[in-house]
Amino acid sequence: MKPKMPIGLKPIKTIVFSLSLLVSFVLILLSHSLHAQNDVLVDGIIGIVGNKIVLHSDIEIQYQQSLAQGMSPDESIKCQIFDQLMMEKLLINQAELDSIVVTEDEIEIEIDNRFRYYISLLGSEEKFEEYFNKTVLEFKDEFRPEVQQILLAKRMQEDIVSTVKVTPIEVKEFFAEIPKDSLPYFNAEVQVAEIVLNPIITKEAKEAAKAKLRDFKARILSEQNTFEELAETYSQDPGSGAQGGNLGLQSRGTYVKEFEAAAFNLKNKDEMTDIVETQFGFHLIRLIERIGNNINLQHILIKPTISTADFDLTKAKADSIRTLILNDSISFKEAVDEYSEDENSQSVAGSLVNRQTGSTYFEMDQLDPDVFFAIESLKEGEMSQPTLVKAPDGSKQYKIFIIQSRTVPHRANLEDDYSRIQEFAQQQKQNEAMNKWITEKVENTFVRLNDQYSSCSSMIKWGN
User: Fold this and answer.
1) CB burial class (10 A; 0-12, 13-18, 19+) of residue 105?
2) pLDDT tens for each residue of 57-87
3) Residue in 288, 290, 284 with CA at minimum distance from that of residue 237
4) SS in 3 state form for the chain?
């Protein structure tokens, strides 16, 4: 199994010949931005796979994104993009023929996760809506069909390559075939894990927050104020507060479990819950309407006031956990399982995941500033002091970091980089499996290409 691509290149993951979900969302957002800036895009069908089409504008949008990311103008890039889009359409076409299903819950969860991420990049929901001149709810409604197609392609490809694995012998053979002068040079990198502790909130602070919501509920029931008025004035959810607390039509799996359990227990229009406590604070929730398994809600969020003394208590708890680990009374992983209050990192033993690469390795300049300064001087296996860190939603948390690994700049080698080389080897084997699958499916699928791209060598596989 000889390497067919420089190992130093970042591998294409999840959808081997297509777009990752993260990149797909960037391109979808970009397409809306481009359409907003240009009244008309010259367009036309340039590819057909089964009953799926590829438009000229699909290629142009992705090409412009490549240029925006610093790539030099090159028509061959359009060939590569066209090839990827044809693969995506073939995957979707076959997924539909094979009756592969993506549930509404999966679509909603994916949309919600991605929008939270992009809103955090722009700073707030208001800035997001101002930039695109459209509400988040409007965007979500427009994205659902596109996201459903992306997830279908992903699921189809997972089915194709799920059984493709490489053996240790294949990994060694793969590495041995790489020319020595082509081995990548890795910069210094770290792997970091964390324990997350939210501020300890006093009983008095909780009672004060709940008292506010009880008062709001009484004022709404007595028609002294509307739900919308109180949400716009007092809700501490910056996204929905400005919309009168409106969360839009959502399905199960969208909200945290405590919120969702209370919300889906509402039966009648305008019915309100009792006060609901979640990791975000306290909520008063009202039902606007139910449509099948979907639910349209409003809520008012009140966060308990956190004092300096509360932060001091949290730091003291973090110090005690750190001491337990240093005294070998508990391992870092055990402490993550028992004490960490972040479900995402807890599910992967506290490991931080690099959003830029999808791996757990970070070059130092890829770390958030709070993390960078906390671990800058630490050696492998060492822990940071409890560090106060600002979360994406503006709240503050104490975190303890540990350096799982720290590498110096080096040429790739099997001893230090086996897991990476294994990943590259497996991805190449998966690519080969995908190429074989394409060849077989193209023979039995209606495929047509526009002559405009007939000179692209990458398009030979499509039989035109």
Assistant:
1) middle
2) 888 888 887 777 777 888 888 888 998 999 9
3) 284
4) CCCCCCCCCCCCCCCCCCCCHHHHHHHHHHHHHHHHHCCCCCCCEEEEECCEEEEHHHHHHHHHHHHHCCCCCCHHHHHHHHHHHHHHHHHHHHHHHCCCCCCHHHHHHHHHHHHHHHHHHHCCHHHHHHHHCCCHHHHHHHHHHHHHHHHHHHHHHHHHHCCCCCCHHHHHHHHHCCCHHHCCEECCEEEEEEEEECCCCCHHHHHHHHHHHHHHHHHHHCCCCCHHHHHHHHCCCHHHHCCCCEEEEEECCCCCHHHHHHHCCCCCCCCECCCEEECCEEEEEEEEEEECCEEEEEEEEECCCCCHHHHHHHHHHHHHHHHHHHCCCCCHHHHHHHHCCCHHHHCCCCECCCCCCCCCCEEHHHCCHHHHHHHCCCCCCCECCCEEEECCCCCEEEEEEEEEEEECCEECCHHHHHHHHHHHHHHHHHHHHHHHHHHHHHCCCCEEECHHHCCCHHHHHHCC
State the distance between the two ends of the chain, measured CA to CA, in whole angstroms.
29
Q: Are 426 and 75 in contact (CB under 8 A)?
A: no
What residues does 281 pair with on adjacent strands? 278
Lookup: tokens for 72: 């030099």
Q: Which of 137, 126, 140, 142 has its CA nearest to residue 239?
A: 126
Q: What are phi and psi of 247, to 5 degrees?
A: -105, -10
pLDDT in tens, 180-216: 988 988 888 999 999 999 888 888 889 999 999 999 9
Q: Is the pTM of this model over 0.90?
A: no
Q: Residues 422, 166: contact at Cβ < 8 Å?
A: yes
Record the tokens describing residue 281, joined without a space: 């604070």
Task: Identify the structural domains of the chain with CATH numbers, from first to last.
Answer: 21-183+413-462 (1.10.4030.10), 186-200+307-410 (3.10.50.40), 203-302 (3.10.50.40)
What are the phi and psi torsion angles at 391 (to 5°)?
-80, 165
Tokens encoding 386: 């409890």
pLDDT given at position 103: 83
